[in-house]
Amino acid sequence: MMNVMEWIIGRDVTRRWLANSIFPLVVDLDRGSLCGVQEDKPIEHLSALGRAENREMAHSGNLLYYSKGLWVYETERLLSSFEVFFNSKEFSPFLGEIRYGGQAMLLHKDTTADQVKALLGTPDEESVEDGETELCYSPNDNVYFVVNFNEAGKLHSIDFV
Q1: Given CB 3.0 to 4.6 Å as the disulfide criterion, which of 32, 35, 50, 133 pairs with 143?
Q2: How far apart, in Å, are the Cα atoms of 34 and each of 15, 39, 123?
């Protein structure tokens, strides 16, 4: 049963999660999944990530893992979206595996938009605003992600929306 404080400020779903250091961090671009968990699936399947590193934000469903380069969004105990970072001032670079077409891809903080296009093909949409580039991909009807590049043209993040 929810207590009054949880009702007022929200609940940190990660508060009892214990990190598992051998839990593989894998993003599958085809499936739109994080460690095998897809959108609208129970967030508890990611419990091996451990407690969110920003407990205040966790109360609003923003599960921040600065040391893993990962921002997970939770709504009503379901995975609603996530973002992995490669080149951020707040987040360490994501060091997990990125998969596409059943193959592991080598992506890192120095990856460029041209290199991503060579790996993933022509994006469904491409935009440049204030020197930052976005490549939008939808490999199937259920998956949509945006690959973001900073002003220097280097890979910033991949955002599943």
Answers
A1: 32
A2: 20, 9, 21
Residue 92 near residue 68 (C-beta atoms within 8 A): yes
d(CA 140, CA 131): 29
66-70, long-range: CB < 8 A, 24+ apart: 66/90, 66/91, 66/92, 67/92, 68/25, 68/92, 68/94, 68/95, 68/96, 69/93, 69/94, 69/95, 70/25, 70/34, 70/94
78: nearest Cα among 124, 50, 44, 33: 44
Q: Which of 148, 103, 109, 113 is nearest to 130 (CA)?
A: 148
Q: Nearest CA to 1 among 11, 133, 112, 9?
A: 11
Mean pLDDT of 116-123: 97
Query: What is the per-residue pLDDT across 14-73, written as a single tens digit (0 to 9) for each?
Result: 999 999 989 999 999 999 999 999 999 999 999 999 999 999 999 999 999 999 999 999
Q: Which residue ranges make up each domain of the chain?
A: 25-160
pLDDT at 161: 87
Q: Which helix (H) or strand (E) holds 71?
A: strand 70-75
| Cα angle: 9, vertex 13, 16; to 5 degrees | 120
From CA 37, how far away is CA 27, in angstroms rounded?
Answer: 9
